[in-house]
Amino acid sequence: KEVAVIKYLIDHYSDQVDWFLIVGDDVFVNIKALKNKLEEFNASFQVYMGRSMNGDDMYKCHQGPGVVYSKGLLNRLEPYLPQCQGEGQTISECIIQRGIHCTQAKETHELFFLDQNRIVETSALYTSKEITRALTVHPIRYPKFMYRLYSYFLEVSFNF
């Protein structure tokens, strides 16, 4: 399924779009911050950015908080997609087989925030510094928390 989504994006949007973000419906995306961060990179390079996983999967990006794919990466993957799909690989496995790894910078753990302590659901959101730089926040279990995060980031942007 993932490989088919990537194939669709390449077929229909790769000549119009430089960056692709794939997230689930339980992810808050701070669009302005994401746009600003992506301006630091060249989309023609092979960028596979997200929160890296642990252990044996350390070269894969954690799908939960979302993954950013550059146009350059998707162009490199395109010829291999039928093979990856035929072998039943995930898109992460397909990417890793091409020698490309998820960003390993500690910063990406803050940028692609995994809210394991449910900060968003408590008043700790307003005192926590760890979520301030987030590009994405996962998981958001209820719509009211999406609105809470939107308000929070709006307030943070006015204070800087």
Provide the gyration radius in Å: 16 Å
**Unreliable stretches:** none
Apparent shape: globular
The number of helical runs is 7
In which order are the strands of the major sheet placed?
A: 1-4-3
* Amino- and carboxy-terminal Cα gap: 41 Å
Helix content: 25-40%
In total, the number of strands is: 6
The secondary-structure class comes to: alpha+beta
Report the mean per-residue pLDDT as an integer: 92
Strand content: 5-15%
What about the largest sheet? 3 strands, antiparallel
Taken in chain order, the helices and strands follow as: HEEHEEHHHHEEH
Report on this model:
The chain is of the alpha+beta class and 160 residues long. It is 39% helix and 12% strand. The protein contains seven helices and six strands; from the N terminus they run H-E-E-H-E-E-H-H-H-H-E-E-H. The protein has helices at residues 2-13, 31-38, 71-77, 81-86, 91-97, 107-111, 143-159; strands at 19-22, 28-29, 48-50, 67-70, 112-114, 136-138. The chain is globular. The mean pLDDT is 92.
Defining traits:
160 residues, alpha+beta, 12% strand
Outline the secondary-structure elements.
Blueprint: H1 2-13, E1 19-22, E2 28-29, H2 31-38, E3 48-50, E4 67-70, H3 71-77, H4 81-86, H5 91-97, H6 107-111, E5 112-114, E6 136-138, H7 143-159
Parallel strand pairs: 5-6
Antiparallel strand pairs: 1-4, 2-6, 3-4
Task: Briefly say what this structure is.
This protein is α+β, with helices and mostly antiparallel strands and 160 residues long. The protein has 7 helices and 6 strands, in the order H-E-E-H-E-E-H-H-H-H-E-E-H.
